[in-house]
Design a protein that fits this description.
alpha/beta; transcription regulation; elongated; transcription cis-regulatory region binding; 4-stranded antiparallel β-sheet; Arc Repressor Mutant, subunit A; Two-component system, OmpR family, response regulator TctD; 11 strands; OmpR/PhoB-type_DNA-bd
Length: about 220
């Protein structure tokens, strides 16, 4: 899952990004509204964490432009302004949730999980494909009753395939979901991660099928 974090306080942004990456999210970080608007115009994100008090272009303007483009990506607004009018302004411009600074990381992560479940139309945090299961609360995969050890990028590829279970996912879409600004997208590397995942899923009945020219499909062969 690739997230966009928009926060002008670089120390806070760095701390948030580190914690989110430890939770196996791919995170892009920008520090002003103009860069946020540009990133949102060219990249597909699973969720946006947006500060309102931004240089160059304020958070409400970023949010307004996003919704005017018809982009329905979930947006969690961060702000030091916890007033009722401030909350209403954010929600009226299209925010999905609102959290006032200071906040606990655990609460932000829980709000992220809730918004991602809503966006994927899943009420149950447990998602399964045969013997493979993923708990969106702990963000851990299991194969049968055993934890499945994955690198961060293997995790990102498998999560994307599981979320789109039964649908074909292109190499380009997988690549965009696992590479951030600091690591340019590389569609050829997807083949390596898929190969490694197939080895780890071997014998489980869960398969990653290649549909030539289209992409990959996760399915339960049993």
């Amino acid at each position: 899952m690739r997230l966009l974090l928009v926060e002008d306080n670089r120390e806070l942004a760095g701390w948030l990004a580190r914690n989110l990456r430890l939770a196996n999210y791919v995170v892009d970080v920008v520090h002003d509204g103009e860069d946020a608007d540009l990133a949102l115009g060219v990249t597909e994100y699973a969720l946006v964490i947006l500060d309102l008090s931004l240089p160059k272009l304020d958070g409400l303007a970023v949010l307004r432009r996003l919704r005017q483009r018809g982009d329905l990506v979930p947006v969690i607004v961060l702000t030091a302004n916890a007033s009722l009018s401030g909350r209403i302004a954010g929600l009226d411009e299209g925010a999905d949730d609102y959290i006032a600074k200071p906040f606990e990381m655990e609460e932000l992560e829980a709000r992220i999980r809730a918004q991602l479940r809503r966006a994927n139309r899943r009420a149950d945090p447990q998602i399964s494909c045969g013997a493979l299961s993923f708990d969106s609360n702990t963000r851990l995969f299991r194969l049968g009753d055993q934890p499945l050890a994955l690198t961060p990028r293997e995790h990102a590829v498998l999560e994307q395939l599981l979320m789109k279970m039964g649908q074909t996912v292109s190499k380009a879409a997988l690549s965009e979901s696992i590479f951030d600004f600091d690591n340019p997208a590389d569609t050829s590397a997807i083949e390596i991660y898929v190969h490694r995942l197939r080895k780890k899923l071997e014998g489980s009945g869960v398969q990653i099928m290649t549909l030539r020219g289209l992409g990959y499909l996760l399915q339960n062969a049993d």
